[in-house]
Amino acid sequence: xxxxxFLNTVMPFKDKVFRLAKRLLVSTEEAEDATQELxxxxxxxKENLKSYNSIEAFAMTMTKNYCFDxxxxxQASNLTLVHSNYKEKGTSLQKKIELNDSISLVERLIExxxxxxxxxxxxxxxxxYEFAEIAEVxxxxxxxxxxxxxxxxxxxxxxxxxxxxxxxx
Amino acid sequence: xxxxxxxxxxxxxxxxxxxxxxxxxLKIYFSSDNVAPHLIEYQALFNYFSTSKNERFTKTxxxxxxxxxxxxxxxxxxxxxxxxxxxxxxxxxxNKAEKxxxxxxxxxxxxxKNLNKGTTAIGELQEFExxxxxxxxxxx
Lengths: 169, 140
Known about the structure:
The complex is a heterodimer.
Chain A: H1 3-10, H2 14-25, H3 28-44, H4 55-76, H5 94-112, H6 115-126, H7 131-138, H8 142-168
Helix pairs in contact in A: 2-3, 2-4, 2-6, 3-4, 4-7, 5-8, 6-8
Chain B: H1 3-14, H2 20-31, H3 40-52, H4 65-139
Helix pairs in contact in B: 1-2, 2-3
């Protein structure tokens, strides 16, 4: 596989990999490093790539595993994640901040979910994967995915309503 | 879309039973401005889903420069080390040579001084010889 061919197969889902990494690692810099590292790994294994029926699903599984490893080593070395990246680069308009306020609330709520539910919300509600694709990425049954997804959605909804009512009263 | 339908879809959504098409319908509904007031908290949720899908990986992916970079770095580092050791050694040698040179110079000046002392003494002796010869010549 040549470099251009590899890039053509890999480029369509680079943003998805990045967003998944960011969902799990929280920090943008960490996610960027993870994405870089993952594509480098994929490039080194380029000979084996053709044997997978979906390279994207394989890449997403790798991303998941890689991020879990990163999180584990982080916990072991007792480092805390940096939560200072809610601001977007360049755009500092007042309007955008106000809009981002309620949006970042959702982000924080998702952040509090268990890892598995975070992954499923990311893959389903943001990346809009079919259940079969999620099952391939996470290597669990579709029924289990539906259960976790439902749980995650309900938790977020409850928290949102709570926050909303808190704002009113 | 009518409200009853949306509420039904929301219930299905929470049970994890909606299809992607139905979820898209919800997204479109909540991105509009006329959301029913009792469903307003869902708006933040669905808008968040839509906006966070737009986040992009902006850096360029490097495929083979990473390990090579490291290799070049090690080569460069060892070169720097070699050069510095070499120049340091040279400097050391030069200092040593200078020291030796100074010492020999000092020794030589001392020697020449003493030699000069000797020549003045010889001069005196010569004077003595001349006068002596004068005296002895007279007696002949």
